[in-house]
Amino acid sequence: MHVAFFSGDITRSGGTENVSVMLANALAEDGAYAISFVSLFEANPTPFFPIDSSISRFALYPKPTHGIQHYFDTVRRLRRIVRQQHVDILIDIDGILDMYALPLKRSTGVKVISWEHFNYHQNPGVPYRKLTRRWAARKADAIVTLTEADRNLYNDNVHPKCPVIAIANPMQPVTPQPVYQTDSHIIISSGRLTYQKGFDMLVEVAAQVLPRHPDWQWLILGEGEDRPALERKIAQAGIAGQLILKGRVENMADYYRNAAMFVLTSRFEGLPMVLLEAKANGLPIVSFDCETGPADIVRDGVNGDLVPEGDIDTMAERVNRLIDVPNQRELYARHALDGAEKFSMTRIIIQWHDLLLRVVQEAN
């Protein structure tokens, strides 16, 4: 069975690319499938996340190409690859890609799985994402959500004709097991510098935290279009020496190992990989409790704090408390892996195996 993951650009460093590569590598290692990636384009010569050497990669365009104006050409190019490579199942790792994949079902016989990485209510950057979700509900062979809450949103709002399956993102175990750095004075946050990730709100939180703790630093790992605005906001808050935009880093593990806590200020998420990584590394977490995601990972008051989404003052209070009470940080760190079993790769691969088999059997 040839399973192809359809991506905007699999060489990027985002959470969607991370989990897609993790899953593809695990399926390739299993040996039961031929696995490939198909991207609209590849902007970087080397993928940020290492891809198994047995996995083939294809790009529809030789350079970055965006826009609905290329729609029919994109469908034609994708159809050619699906036919030439005898793709059986196409997994769209961003629901917006359904608009290119679903038209191929009749002409090629390919099965299409729509993999939702946000949640039903969010349409970041693309207003017609709502239309593709409804289209997928009628024509896809399956929809995969990251949480049960989002699966219920799909069932309640669009009444899909295909199965909707909740499969969490996997959490990679860290070996050797991390040792929590009780003396660390470093807070980390990570993600693309975009509206979704709420780093503008993070600056406001940091402005209530860092002046009280001049020996602490807060590092933001990631790059994106909001960098100039964030740099101005940080400078205006007078905390440029403590709140630092590190940009895209390749040694994430080193930052997790040396941090005292992880903070997430996203406006919305699906199931954030950065929180799973923080959890795997044994870090206390403070996170906005946005509609889906954080509450599946963080047990409030056990291994972290969940704060009402957008409540900057409460977020600052919780971060200040963890700084001021080291024993609380250590307690959260000891319980960091509570509930981790539901994110095990073994469990998640079994769920994907079952889904792929189901899609093929229902086709026959």
Descriptive report:
There is one protein chain. This protein has helices at 15-30, 71-84, 98-101, 104-108, 129-139, 148-158, 199-209, 227-237, 252-257, 273-280, 294-297, 312-324, 326-334, 345-363; strands spanning 2-7, 34-39, 56-59, 89-92, 111-115, 142-145, 164-166, 186-190, 217-221, 243-247, 261-264, 285-288, 304-307. It is α/β, with parallel strands linked by helices. The chain has 2 domains: 2-170 and 344-363, Glycogen Phosphorylase B (Rossmann fold, 3-Layer(aba) Sandwich); 186-342, Glycogen Phosphorylase B (Rossmann fold), CATH 3.40.50. Strand 12 (285-288), helix 11 and strand 13 (304-307) form a beta-alpha-beta unit. Helix 7 runs parallel beside helix 8, helix 7 (199-209) packs across helix 12 (312-324) and helix 12 (312-324) packs across helix 13.
